[in-house]
Specification:
single chain; 278 residues; PH-domain like; eight-stranded mixed sheet; 2 helices; kinase activity
Length: 278
């Protein structure tokens, strides 16, 4: 049993659920109120999927989500732990349960990992050169903190640009080329813009990043500070990750191209608490 944000096709946003796996079904129970008292007062059954109906499981980009499909694609949901360790642990537990089913109730479940190919929704945002090397990037599902609210977004870092993305977790996983007309050759060219499941919310050139603020009392929070040399205006992204290890990985990735660009160390300031800058 695990508490995790879940996204369902046809339902806006995501909502906190308990995901419970028995030896017969996978249950998704929506948390509807404060977690106290009898479970019936704060849990609502949303899905009950027979395990033999599961058809495919996809581990999302950077291992931060799980896409589950059943009944040959007739139904699906996305689990959004935003933590690769938790995702892989749940995937291993689910695989163990499926493997322990008797042969009469055991079905063939396809397990894959999401890959960034020329048809992927993020491909148009990635910088590529003439070499055959795959594009370098860093991807993390985070929260954008705006006052008391924190909304889910995706952070995409390339060697030249930082993006904040609004993604529909249940949207299409890739852009597919139109079917070829009879007698024509299908050209699998990458799409000219992101697919319908992603929208660029904000973007900043790496050269505009001036500093990073960290907080001792909130080790999952950070602030990326930008300075526009032309307008002479400062702006920032206040972000929250789900564990300090993600913040460490983010800083390690962005520091290399930034310091290569400016030949100085990236300025990182640690403050005591969020109230000093909010």
């Amino acid at each position: 049993m695990a508490g995790v944000p879940v996204a369902l096709p046809g339902h806006p946003g995501e909502f906190l659920c308990l995901v419970v796996v028995s030896d017969h079904r996978l249950y998704v129970l929506k948390v509807t109120g404060e977690i106290c008292g009898p479970p019936a007062s704060w849990l609502q059954l949303t899905l009950a999927v027979p395990l033999q109906d599961l058809s495919s499981i996809e581990l999302g980009l950077a291992g931060q989500s799980l896409w589950l499909e059943w009944a040959a694609g007739a139904g699906s949901c996305v689990l959004l732990p935003r933590d690769a360790k938790h995702c892989r642990a749940f995937l291993e537990e689910l695989a163990d349960v499926l493997q322990s089913l008797p042969p009469t109730r055991r079905s063939s479940v396809s397990t894959t990992e999401e890959e960034v190919t020329p048809k992927h929704r993020l491909w148009p945002l990635l910088e590529r050169d003439s070499s055959s090397e795959p594009p370098r990037f860093f991807y993390l599902r985070v929260f954008l903190v705006e006052g008391p609210a924190a909304c889910p977004v995706s952070l995409l870092l390339t060697l030249c640009t930082l993006y904040l993305l609004d993604e529909d977790p249940t949207g299409s996983q890739a852009e597919h080329p139109p079917p070829a007309v009879s007698g024509e050759v299908s050209v699998k060219a990458p799409p000219s813009r992101p697919g319908p499941s992603v929208r660029v919310r904000e973007q900043q050139p790496l050269s505009s990043l001036s500093s990073v603020l960290l907080y001792r009392v909130a080790p999952e929070d950070l602030r990326l500070v930008f300075y526009d040399e032309v307008s002479r205006l400062e702006s920032f992204w206040a972000l929250r990750v789900v564990c300090p290890e993600q913040l460490t990985a983010l800083l390690a990735w962005i520091r290399e191209p930034w310091e290569e660009l400016f030949s100085i160390g990236l300025r990182t300031v640690t403050q005591e608490g969020l109230e000093l800058v909010q």
